[in-house]
Amino acid sequence: MKKLPIPTISFKTALSAAFDGMGSAAYRAEHETAFKTPEKIESHYSDRATMSELYNEPRIIGAADPIVLGALSKSQLTRLYTQYFVPQKKPARPLYEEIKVTANGKCPLCGDVGHVRTLDHYLPKSNFPVYSILPINLVPCCRDCNSEKLDAFANTVDQQTLHPYFDHDRFFSEKWISARVIRTTPPVVDYFVDAPARWQASDRSRVESHFREYRLGNRFSVEAAADLPETIHTRRTTMAKSSDEEFSGYLSEKSQTANLPINNWRRVMFTALAADEWFCNQTFIGV
User: Fold this and answer.
1) Would the pTM count as exceeding 0.70?
2) Lesser CB count within 10 Å: N end or C end of the chain?
3) What are the phi and psi torsion angles at 250 (to 5°)?
4) What interhelical angle do 93-100 and 11-20 show, nearest 10?
5) Which of 152, 179, 194 represents a domain boundary (last residue)?
6) Number of neighbours of residue 54 by Cβ within 10 angstroms
């Protein structure tokens, strides 16, 4: 849920670096022959992604190892990533690191909950092996987001998760996640999708899919549960004599942290707390 700049590394550059790591001249020549026009492959992906039509891409399903591109099989194409792009001592590894750092250490898929540890294939390499080292298909992410998604991918436009490189700015600059306070002891913050009504139905469905696919409701609630005691402590101590309105104003100010994405769990939490009369009225004695 954070927009990222489109990688400047071309597919041709990524392929060349991967091929440089191959020990066999014949094996390299087989790959170079298969990837005669990387620019066309890259342009096709970019056009589809820009129009939110990647769900239409033909996919490979099952454990079979068919020939996919030229003389290259599915397994050979996926090995471009696992054996020639990721390993530390391979020539392509600096490109892997260059893509990772564009997120400034924070995962764009969960809105800064996790720290970037790896690259996620927006179109999974097991189903779309031609794109296994296409830079614009590789998204910096945390391990949780990478493991939550696994090889799942959409069959319809409504099911597509957000693409940090290509999707419209509205998904990243407009608020579509809200929260409510569950009035228990201690309180619980419950997150849900609340996309703008003016959005198209498909866009609202897409953020629902993103929220569900990456289990953001549960993950955000866990973060809030760990953070909320600090706010409760502030209410019991330094703001013990403040009115409900003053405490609400304090919480509202905390929600305006501009350096966090608008749908970040912490910003959304403070917005919900500030708006909840019951929470602002509590003294939290004994909590």
Assistant:
1) yes
2) C
3) -60, -45
4) 140
5) 152
6) 21
